[in-house]
Design brief:
The chain is an alpha/beta fold. It has eleven helices and twelve strands. It binds adenosine-5'-diphosphate (ADP).
């Protein structure tokens, strides 16, 4: 059995010159047509009754074209809309579709077959669109829930862990004499694992914080890099690292998060250096249309380019627990999250033994300085 289709046919005048649309609809079985003669009546009718589709049959006036665009914005959210107008104006048709209409029929192609086909396709397409939107909304909601869970879990697990570390410390400092060598060894390992867990939880917490809305301000990147270099002074001295940087722009972003990105990239460039060579880190800047492009290059151990994407995954590392290069594998995942959340991108290129380059692209916004 064919399903009944309820159509709300809307004219933009009380005295339409043409009634071809309703004449055609009359020839279609199971297609029931209700007529209204203004956009106000259209809204009112939609509140009283349910329809499967709206047909907007427009006169030539410019005013009614604009009114149609406004009306589609409000009504086409749930119901498919097809616009019928006297001419085949492609630009207007495109505007209509961008606004949410499913189709536009010019009077030169208005016939029974085309009208029926357009109505059926529009209903089908709108149902698919609605289903897709529903899945996207549920996906976004469950994603948020998951991020929230990671945040709460990593935050709340810190407290019991702090206690484990504190009591472990007390055992070490106050009861060493009562413990034999074996017990002391177990205690030492337990403390080591607890400290590692603390670092992991902290990274996880930072990762979930990176997905949250954070306050933005104007940041002077030259100043930021200077401060990071100062804070890394010990390791810079120890490894005899040299860091150079171009004149960097001011950007608008969250200070803590951008600092985290720069700090991760610069400290990685120093950490993954070759044993026999002191690290040389270069931070270069160029403007590419509406983007700031900042690259971080080093002369370190590098990695095979097949890992260039994978190293941005959470907990992904190219070195084992016992290697000389320590870490959690969360630094680059945090960088990626922060940069992408700000509408930018981050990528890496490298070759084993040939150094690495990390490139971040950030949208260059107009800055409001006070
Ligand atoms: P972590 O440094 O804690 O392991 P990251 O997420 O910062 O975690 O980096 C992930 C992996 O990417 C590292 O384990 C390392 O193998 C590789 N890596 C990152 N930066 C560099 C670099 N500058 N040179 C070589 N390898 C790097």
């Amino acid at each position: 059995m064919t399903k009944d289709i309820n159509i709300l046919l809307t004219y933009d005048t009380y005295y339409p010159d043409e009634t071809l649309t309703e004449d055609l609809l009359e020839q279609l079985e199971n297609y029931h047509c209700t007529k209204v003669y203004s956009f106000i009546e259209l809204s009112r009718k939609l509140k009283e009754q349910e329809f499967d589709i709206i047909l907007l049959d427009l006169s030539q006036s410019q005013v009614s074209r604009i009114a149609a665009l406004i009306s589609i914005e409000f009504e086409a959210k749930d119901i498919p809309v097809i616009v019928i107008s006297g001419d085949e104006d492609e630009e207007f048709a495109l505007q209509l579709v961008k606004q949410g209409a499913q189709d536009h029929l010019g009077s030169d192609c208005l016939c029974l077959t085309n009208l029926k086909k357009s109505i059926n396709l529009a209903i089908e397409r709108k149902q698919l669109q609605n289903r897709l939107e529903f899945y996207m909304d549920s996906f976004e909601a469950s994603n948020k829930e998951l991020e929230n869970f990671a945040y709460v879990a990593s935050h709340d697990l810190q407290e019991p862990l702090r206690k484990i570390i504190t009591f472990g410390d007390r055992l070490t400092s106050k009861c060493t004499e009562q413990l034999d060598d074996k017990a002391q060894d177990y205690l030492g390992r337990m403390q080591g694992a607890a400290s590692r867990m603390k670092i992991l939880l902290n990274d996880l917490l930072q990762y979930s914080r990176a997905s949250r809305q954070a306050e933005e301000e104007v940041i002077d990147l030259n100043q930021l890099v200077k401060e990071i270099i100062d804070s890394l002074d010990d390791v810079i001295q120890e490894k005899q690292a040299q860091i150079s940087y171009d004149d960097l722009p001011n950007i608008e972003a969250n200070h803590t998060q951008i600092q985290q990105v720069f700090q991760n990239l610069i400290s990685n460039a120093i950490k993954y250096s070759k044993e026999a060579e002191s690290p040389q880190v270069k931070i270069e800047y160029k403007r590419d249309k509406d983007q700031h492009v900042i690259s971080f290059s080093d002369n370190g151990i590098g990695f095979s380019n097949e890992y260039a994407k994978k190293i941005f995954n959470q907990f992904y590392r190219l070195h084992g627990k016992n290697s000389q290069y320590q870490g959690t594998g969360m630094g680059l995942a945090i960088c990626k999250k922060i940069i992408e959340r700000g509408g930018g991108s981050i990528a890496a290129t490298s070759e084993e033994g040939q150094g690495s380059t990390f490139i971040i692209r950030l949208p260059a916004k107009e800055l409001v300085t006070t």
